[in-house]
Predict the 3D structure of the following.
Amino acid sequence: QVQLVESGGGLVQAGGSLRLSCEASGRAFSTYRMGWIRQAPGKEREFVSAISPGGFDTGYADSVKGRFTISRDNAKNTVYLQMNSLKPEDTAVYYCTATRIYSSHPDYWGQGTQVTVSL
């Protein structure tokens, strides 16, 4: 069992930056592919970014490529999402996810953290 706790959300002006953190409890954090998924009001959940267990491979949605950076520290059981040049359309609840290596969808979800970007 893995528990995920996000932090770092908040209110920021357009063009600003935020860094989200997600700390995992439980065993074998370094064996999970970690990711971020967001959901804006009235919209479906949207993939944002993911990182391989060792941290060598990353992926991003086109909408955030070049502005967001995902990273992880396996010694601290933590994954990060650095968000720069934020836009109002980035406003959403951001969820941290953990996926087993052979799973096709996330196995664990955090409770979510709100990110609000104002004009």
